[in-house]
Each structure stands twice: as C-alpha cells, then as structure tokens.
Amino acid sequence: MHALPFIFLLMSVFAGTAIAYFVGSATILGFWAFDQTRYLAALPQKVMSQLDVFAFLAMPLFILTGELMNRGGVTEALIRFSMSMMGRLKGGLGHVNILTSVFFAGISGSATADAAALGNTLVPVMEKQGYSRDYAAAITAASSIIGPIIPPSIILIFYGALLNTSVVALFAAGIVPGLLLAAVLMVINAIYAHRDDHPGGKGAEIPAFWPSLRYALPALSLPVIMLSGILFGFMTPAEAAGVAVLAAFLVGKFYGRISRQDVWESMLRTGMLSGAVFIILVAIATFGYLTSIEQLPRKLGELVTQLGLGPTGYMLMLNLIFIVAGMFMDVKAAVALLGPLLIPPAIALGIDPVHMGIVVCFNLTVGLLTPPLGGVLLILSTVVEIGYWRLVRAVLPFLIAEMILLFVLALVPDISLTLPRLMGLH
C-alpha cells in the first residue's frame, strides 16, 4: 500500500506528465496510502501559508524585466561593448561570448534566455568569422549558465523564499562564484584559441571603446541600480524588481526597439511562466505538508547520523543526488521537490544555509548542460540547428571544468561566503 504513490510517481514521470500534476497527484494518493486523509481538510491553509512569502513577489517582476530587455535591443549593445574590450585578444569572439553572458546575467538572470539570445545573434557571427558551429554553440551553452548565478537571479529568489534563506545574502554570495566561472571559461577559450588558431588578435576589426560604452551604458546601468539597491539595503528584492521593470521599458525606448506589442507579449509570457512556477509551488507545498506529517526530514536526519556522514560527506552526497536530478528535471522543480527534504539535515550538520544555496543552485544550473534533458542544450540545438548529441560532445570539456569548479565551491565555503560577510549580510 505504501509503495503505491511511488509507483504512480514513476509511471507519471516516464509518461511525460508535467511535474506539478504528477507530484500533486502522487501526494494526494500518498495521504490515502499512509492513512492521513484526515489532514486534507487543513491542506488549503497550509498551501497558502507556504506561498505567502514576500520574496516570491520579485520573481514575476524579474521575469518581466528579462522579457522586456530581450525585446529591447540590449543584446546588440552588450555584444558591441564586449567586442570593444575583448576583440584584440586571440579567440576574441569566444571571450566576447562569455563577457556578454556576464553582463546579460545582471539583467535577465536566466540561462535559457541567455542561450536563446546569443544563439540567435552571436553564434552566426562567430561562424562567419571562422569558428566551427560546434565550438560557437558549445561556448554559448557553457557561458549561459552564468546567468542564474550572478544576481539578480530568479532561481536564487526561488530557493531563498522556499527554504527561508536570505535572498540578499544569496545575491551577494553568487557574485564571486559567477565571476570565477567566467574566468575559468575564458582560460579554456584561450587554450582552444591558441590550439586551433581561432581568429582574433592584432589587426582584428573592433568597435571603438568609448562610443560602444556610451551606447551600452543604459543597459549596463540596470544591474548596477538593482544590485546596489538590494545589497546596500535601499530596496528589497521585490522593490528592486519593480524598479527594474520600469528601467527595462525605458532602456528599450532608448534603443528604439520596444513597442506596445512587445510589452503586451512580454506580459503574456511573464504570466505564463509565473503561472507554471506557482502551480509547481502548490504541488510541492502539498508534498511538503505530507513529509512533515510523516516526519521524513527528521527520519532522514537520523539516517544521516547512523551512516556517520559528516558535513563534507553529506555535501558530496547531496551534490551527486542533485547532479542526477539535474539531468532529468527543471531547475526550479528540482529545488522545490528535493530541497525541503534534503537541505534541513545539511543545516543540522552545520553546513551554512547560504553556502548550501549557492552550491545547490550552481549544481542544478550545470544540469542544464547535461544530457538527456539539458534545457540549454535543447534550446541551442534548435536555435543553432545542430544535432543534440553533436552539441553534447562539443560542450563536454566545458562541462567537466564546471563540474570541477562545483566541487571546489562545495568544499571551500569561503569562496561564496566572504563577500556576504564583508557586507554584513551574513
């Protein structure tokens, strides 16, 4: 009887059912299988209390900001400015790709949005300049996951609100790991550039720096305004997201690339994405209610104690679990489903909650590059018109480097925690 919900859950997964439906349905079946149906009367109240979190308000607004910026001509301005800085280097367009992702991260906070935008714009340019399509697509995929790590990040807001961790501290903690990821990718690109004689270097045609900077300033000012307001306490993440929506609209008007139709389509897209997220949250809140009744987090904590896993051992085990989850699940869905169950025992072992948040989010974001269902790989293979498994092979060296960096971050908490401590946020 107790195995029935798990059998139903596995059948739903392999049938391709949306996560909100199969988690919600399996959980309701679980109430019946575990003879806990008497608690269902309080379910609506429990679910609404889980969703009544102020930080969740920022999520739809940041999604809307990203949608407006994607339609407002920002990508072109950022590429041009990045080219003015990196064009003289060997393999310059590869560095431009990475640097543009860093700038883009402070605007959209979405790996898939970054991959789609640069896949449409920068990959064709790289191919025309002499890069192979495989390499151009691979470096675009690898650099796009910088987006969810450098704030403002939708996934960090989601994690912080769901697991009662300071979103502001998570934002500060994500800056150094995100920049470190960019540096690692630039080193790999430089190695490939000299090995394969990529274009760039002396004599390359590049835009003038100061005109490019002036043109890109409106786009570059947006993350500065948001992050300074959040990190120095002038604005909450929700207030900063509201300012970001207005600023994104004004930037689009400045570039003359945004219309009423663009605004309407951005709002529709935001409504669809936000609705999908909150349906998942309702299902996960239902699951969390059942796990609390059955005291699963406590039992899991006792199991960890019995196994003799210390903080380091449990952290490594968690990383392996989340890597496997990231191969099959959406990032937010994996956080929502596994986080409330697996994170509390980690905190009980003394692992810092902010450090844990950065490691988990970095881990699952790397999952966007892992087969068989890597979201970034699926988007780029479609946008760039390259075979999925061909792209997997091309991105593998970058993926290995990012996995190594993930375990370094997991084992050295100071990488993510130094900046929040210096700013008094931790």
Short description:
Helix content is 76%, strand content 0%.
* Helix-and-strand structural type: mainly alpha
Give the end-to-end Cα distance, rounded to a whole number of Å.
46 Å
* Strand segment tally: 0
Give start-end ranges of low-pLDDT stretches.
Answer: none
Strand content: under 5%
N-to-C SSE string, H for helix and E for strand: HHHHHHHHHHHHHHHHHHHH
User: How many H/I helical runs?
Assistant: 20
Total domain count: 1
Shape estimate: globular
Mean pLDDT: 83
Q: Quick one: biggest sheet? A: none
Helix share, percent? over 70%
Radius of gyration: 22 Å
Q: Characteristics of this structure?
A:
single chain, 76% helix, 0% strand, mainly alpha, 20 helices, 426 residues
Descriptive notes:
This protein is an all-alpha fold. The chain has one domain (36-422). The protein contains 20 helices and no strands. The radius of gyration is 22 Å and the shape is globular.
Topology (SSEs and partners):
Layout: H1 4-14, H2 19-33, H3 43-51, H4 58-71, H5 74-86, H6 92-105, H7 111-128, H8 133-144, H9 154-162, H10 167-196, H11 209-231, H12 237-254, H13 260-293, H14 296-307, H15 311-328, H16 331-348, H17 353-366, H18 375-383, H19 388-411, H20 414-422
Helix pairs in contact: 1-2, 2-13, 3-13, 4-12, 4-13, 5-6, 5-11, 6-7, 6-8, 6-10, 7-8, 7-18, 8-18, 8-19, 9-16, 10-17, 10-19, 10-20, 11-12, 13-16, 14-16, 15-16, 15-17, 16-17, 17-19
